Amino acid sequence: MSNTVLVLNSGSSSIKFGLFDISAAEPTLLCKGLLDEHDAKPRLVVKSPAGEDLFEKRREASDTDSDHLFADVLGFIEDRFGGHRLRAVGHRVVHGGPDYSAPVELTDDVIAKLEALTPLAPLHQPRCLAPVRAIRAIRPDLTQIACFDTAFHHGIAPPASRFAIPRRYEERGVRRYGFHGLSFEYVAERLARIAPQLVAKRTVIAHLGNGASLCGLRDGRSMDTTMGLTPLDGLVMGTRCGRIDPGVLLYLQQHEKMSVEDVQHLLYHESGLLGVSSISSDMRTLLASSEAAAREAVELFTFRAAQEVAAMATTLAGLDCLVFTGGIGEHAKEIRSAIGERLEWLGVRIDAAANDAARERINGGDSAVDVFVIPTNEELMIAQHCAAVLRPGNRI
After folding, report:
1. Average pLDDT, the chain
2. How many CA atoms does the CB half-sphere of 150 hold within 13 Å?
3. Looking at 21, 72, 149, 370, which residue is catalytic?
4. Would you list the DSSP string of 294-326?
């Protein structure tokens, strides 16, 4: 009987999942799917690794017990893969705070500590922890493991990790943590396989999607990143503002008489591409639009991304490799091209034909910087971490 791990990757409105066989050295995907709790009728969709439909179930919108969706997933796994032993459920948890730099079993104490970090990721942390509680209610005997988006950046040191505020706050954990770590870790490992000669080089990975951030790496380790204490900092995102003058926040509270809750909602849900364009948070919609505001939102997105790549190059003392990943980074050739054009002074030259075809390597022959497009796979990274935790002798 082979061992499996169910991986849950919680987003703001849906949960991606994958079932992996972890019996071999490299986890093997058995099936993948989506739990959409915000659809008109909450639904579960399961597909084969090749994308063939295996199972679909909808529930009435009036059925507010979301635990049923997870029970449906576990029921499907038991029916379809009963010959495998489900060893654990692995979760992507956005914030691990100062205490968690590696995967950890989700005990009552750990869950309480992670819930206490909710103010640092109010949009994400509750969504990550809700499935943990739901599965505990259904299968209290099943091991659950948290894998953290902040863990990959845990080694970032001052000055990159430090805010210019009184040191007593840093001593209380107010520092730059960074996020998208599971994505960066996967892409860094994939890059090492594709081009091992670049591992020791100065690399920037651009995870561009509804959430977006950059990571500057050397020797495969995170040296700097654009997100900070929370997932609000850095690049322009779908509905998040990215870097902003703190004085704007003071102005909104003091002169616009906005409450803390109002400001939080504005920064997380009404800003970014949606706020600038007043049209959509979806880059595909904006690229297809003829509206001037859509073009301006896209321009700001690419301007800020290029600006922050240059900042990462300052940390790294140069730039040898640039990697695009994430939904926008992998699929929006116009965005890759625009960012590349803004970075020509750094030696970036993107080959138009290679970029249009979304080839793995898209730099031109005259480029001083290697440029890649590498699809991310956070679920596989979580499966790898869980497999390592569950190996004999490593059990938490």
Report:
1. 94
2. 26
3. 149
4. HHHHHHHHHHHHHHHHHHHHHHHTS-SEEEEEH
Round to whole Å and give the CA distance between 4 and 266: 41
- pLDDT tens, position by position, 98-152: 999 999 999 999 999 999 999 998 888 999 999 999 999 999 999 999 999 999 9
Strands 14-21 and 3-10: antiparallel
Residue 149 annotated as catalytic? yes
pLDDT, tens digit, 9 for 90 and up, residues 166-211:
999 999 999 999 999 999 999 999 999 999 999 999 999 999 999 9
CA distances for 49 relative to 28, 29, 70, 86, 88, angstroms = 9, 6, 20, 18, 20
Which tokens go with 309?
């790549």
Answer whether 234's CB lies under 8 Å from 242's CB.
yes
> pLDDT of 155-174, one tens digit each?
999 999 999 999 999 999 99
d(CA 182, CA 324): 15
